[in-house]
Amino acid sequence: MKPEQPVAADAAGLTAVLSPPLERDIEAIARWYTKAVVLAGSLAPLSELLDSTGRRRTLVLTDGTNQEPAGLILVALDDPQPGWATVDLLATARQEERDVAALGVFLLEAHLQGEAIHVRAAVPADVGLAPYFWLTLGYRPVVFGQGLWMMRDLDA
């Protein structure tokens, strides 16, 4: 995936764009971040999430309708091992933006092709609808230690 290039998708009248964060995105995200709906991972200080490296990428999910940041995705490549990608955070501004988040996951998977074979996401224990969100996207649940992970093979 080329993190410097935005990618877009649409389905059922919804549009989503996945791109690296811009300064204006960071300011908008900061307004809702502490109250975000977390569909994978857990919230950490926003300042810690904004540094992308070759293996860790922070991407903003923008609702194509109003051009406002609707979510944030943090993905780690080669985690836990080569060929894997771990969604360390998928957070949306509001519960109603799950459809936009689903488009964001679709975009992420499409652009991980060639870089990852498997994708996994840790499902927070305190978000009851998060497992269902991932199930509707074709992920399967796996219990590992004390946590629930949702996993998917990209070549399947």
Structure explained in plain terms:
With 156 residues, the chain is of the alpha+beta class. The protein has a domain at 7-115: Gcn5-related N-acetyltransferase (GNAT) (Aminopeptidase, 3-Layer(aba) Sandwich). Helices cover 23% and strands 38% of the residues. The chain contains four helices and nine strands. It has helices at 23-32, 46-49, 98-112, 130-136; strands at 7-11, 14-19, 37-41, 56-63, 69-77, 84-92, 118-123, 140-144, 147-153. Strands 1, 2, 3, 4, 5, 6, 7, 8 and 9 form a nine-stranded mixed sheet that branches. Helix 3 (98-112) links the parallel strand 6 (84-92) and strand 7. The longest helix is centred in the last third of the chain and has 15 residues, at 98-112. The protein is globular, with a radius of gyration of 14 Å. It starts with 6 loop residues before the first strand and ends with a strand. The relative contact order is 0.19. The model is unreliable at 1-5 (pLDDT under 50).
Please state the second-level CATH architecture of the domain at 7-115: 3-Layer(aba) Sandwich
How many helical elements?
Answer: 4
The counted number of beta strands is 9
Name the average pLDDT: 85
Oligomer: single chain
Q: What percentage of the residues does DSSP assign to strands (E)?
A: 35-45%
Using the CA coordinates, give the radius of gyration: 14 Å
CATH topology of the domain at 7-115: Aminopeptidase
> What do we call the CATH homologous superfamily of the domain at 7-115?
Gcn5-related N-acetyltransferase (GNAT)
**What would the principal axes of the Cα set say about the shape?**
globular
Query: From the helix content, strand content and strand pairing, which structural class follows?
Result: alpha+beta
